[in-house]
Sequence to fold (195 residues):
Amino acid sequence: MSVIDDLAAEFAKLPGIGRKTALRLTYHLLKQNPDQSRRLAGALEALVARVRRCSVCNNLTEQDPCALCADPRRDQGLLCVVEDASDIGAIERAGEFRGLYHVLGGRLSPLDGVGPDDLAVQSLVDRVSAGSIREVILATNPSMEGEATALYVQRQVAGHVPRVSRIARGIPVGGDLEYADGVTIAQAISARREM
Fold:
């Protein structure tokens, strides 16, 4: 296998990138100034070297705790549970939520071999057991797996927190928070319901 095929194969492992697009990206890089490819390589190396999980919320960050957990202006009694770190950005862009987050690191998906032990549920239970959280908002995606994950998490935290709510429907079923617009996310957060 050639170096071109190796890079195309790596690109093809990224979500939404097929073999043709991977080859197109590879050839695009070859047409650019070599400095452009070096900057890309450097950015990837820095990403791997400096980004890690926040020890509090499991978000991806360069500092520990992350900027959201360290911000004293955020409502310490509201905790929004999301599947992935990218979902935090989507909610933050809506500008409606001022609480804290907890990243599960995925969703229950038995067909993909993802069970409860593969998610950061126990650290969530530990956080809410401390007693300072008054509401947990479940903001998993409105897919079958996201709904199953929300129900599982609700059962795990219910005895440890006064209120567990679920974001309202407004995000299309089968959609991902990462791709929803800010107005839809803001409406879903403000119209959340008790579980």
